[in-house]
Amino acid sequence: MAHTVAELGEFGLIDAMVAGQPPTKGIEVGPGDDAAVLALGGGRTVATTDLLVETHHFRRDWSSAEDVGHKASAQNLADLVAMAARPVAVLVGLGLPADLPVDWVQELYRGLRAECDPLGVGVAGGDVVAAEQVTVAVTALGELLGDAPLRRGGARAGDVVAVYGRLGWAEAGLAVLRRGFRSPRVLVDAHRRPAVPYDAGDSALEHGATAMCDVSDGLLADAGHIATASGVAIDVHTDQLYVPDPMSEIASALGVDPVRWVLHGGEDHAMVATFPTPPAHPWRVVGTVASGSGVTVDGEAYEHTSGHTHFG
Amino acid sequence: MAHTVAELGEFGLIDAMVAGQPPTKGIEVGPGDDAAVLALGGGRTVATTDLLVETHHFRRDWSSAEDVGHKASAQNLADLVAMAARPVAVLVGLGLPADLPVDWVQELYRGLRAECDPLGVGVAGGDVVAAEQVTVAVTALGELLGDAPLRRGGARAGDVVAVYGRLGWAEAGLAVLRRGFRSPRVLVDAHRRPAVPYDAGDSALEHGATAMCDVSDGLLADAGHIATASGVAIDVHTDQLYVPDPMSEIASALGVDPVRWVLHGGEDHAMVATFPTPPAHPWRVVGTVASGSGVTVDGEAYEHTSGHTHFG
């Protein structure tokens, strides 16, 4: 039996929050997908919230305030994209140490806004309070692109699994920073600011996607979320994964297998989706769906522990 | 010039977040009111977010986890009520120390749910991450009761100012706890769990309210928000304020003026509103609106600093 939150873990804690909750009028999609879908005021709203906490999700010596602003927006907007929704607005809750320089906060805002502005997303509200650690709690709100959300539970045996966006880049960048290096710059920058494929919702709908999920916990973990929700088995094919040259080179220098970064790295916020027929570029087919359960790699169980854990 | 966040303060920090932001499609009411109003998916959504941080907003030795859950829900739901909106769902972001007992979290959930369930409000989603301080970031989402939100800017000269709910109880309870006492229990409990007047939105609309605001920063501060947004002057009449007996008694024992608690205490989440004609019970008329600007008490400037400051 779990006695501390570290023992129960993130997903156990979220399950416990809503255990036994009766279906609520207005909540069409509740916890357990990338975002909630709510019937509100005669329409439908898609909503998600995420926290970034200093030392746990970023370090002020590794990431600029602007980087943190980009990342806080991006990870929430990505959750809306994963439901095939259009982001409209964000609410920003900030916990800030009293002695934090105002310049740092102004830069954070610049990053937040720079991620949101090109999408036409505005800051609709916020709260700023004192805290010992910099804490950024962003809620993103949007509307569905199509008639229905693209959920995790629609994958069918015979579908292909495809990815749009980067896998493992942020994880490789973090590994580089942890060893005390600052390059390859392209990977370090990927850790600092994810490059979310913001048109993935439209593109997934166009290609007839059956399920989609934001890769925030790692490809295997998030493909696992689709497999579980859909009641299917997913096999990932390592020969179809893309390992960019800088990643191969630094992996070799650090003596690690870059495919591990690609399979387990979260925080790039790529999209993983399933399709009845192979989708065109920019999607990259990386696996197949079959009847059964669980996720395998090249047809075999994968021995390493899977994905990011918040209380590790 | 402000160099730290403590020097700039909460409102300066929120203003800076949205300074120069162009009007955004979909945001009907942005920052500066109790909640945002968004045009989403063919309807309208009312949304607000607030953070509670350990040691700054609660102490684990003064409040139970259940109290913290009640308070985190209540303060957000109150912001929706203040717009004349019906709360529908909450999203809950939690930052938790890894060694926090799971029992504490379960109790927090019990408090959150106990505040929401009677209103038919459900938990639609959440995020749980590691943090050094317990941090509770609740976002509340709802829909308008009427055709338009009840904003801060509609008060007119000749209106009366009225309050629905408690004023100063939570502040008095906190003063008691700070002196090392645990009673009067009714005041200490008011600090731990606000008693939000959840039907105030309907009631304000029925009585033809012209403006409304949640009292979270103190009556004078929040009446000031209405005065500023409406371009009017507000005078508060101390002979119309209600000072309950336990508050008079403990104020006398502590050698303080209880009217200060009533004028400055936030966190009870009463509603302050303006009406063309005096509203019936449970509203209590406490002042008048005239042309001009600012807030006075019994016709005179009030010397004490006003309201709660997060970075004090």
Q: How would you explain this protein's 3D organization?
A:
- Two copies of one chain form a homodimer.
- With 312 residues, chain A is α+β, with helices and mostly antiparallel strands.
- Chain A has two domains: 22-144, PurM-like, N-terminal domain (60s Ribosomal Protein L30, Chain: A), CATH 3.30.1330; 152-297, Alpha-Beta Complex (Phosphoribosyl-aminoimidazole Synthetase, Chain A, domain 2), CATH 3.90.650.
- In chain A, 32% of the residues lie in helices and 27% in strands.
- Chain A has nine helices and twelve strands.
- The first copy, chain A, has helices at 5-18, 65-81, 102-116, 169-178, 185-192, 200-206, 219-230, 245-254, 258-264, and strands spanning 27-29, 36-40, 43-53, 85-96, 122-130, 135-144, 160-164, 211-215, 232-236, 270-275, 284-291, 294-297.
- A six-stranded mixed beta sheet of chain A has the order 1-2-3-6-4-5, covered by helices on one side. In chain A, strands 8-10-7-11-9-12 form a six-stranded mixed beta sheet, with helices on both faces.
- In chain A, strand 1 (27-29) and strand 2 form a beta hairpin.
- In chain A, helix 4 packs across helix 5 (185-192).
- The radius of gyration of chain A is 19 Å and the shape is globular.
- The mean pLDDT of chain A is 94.
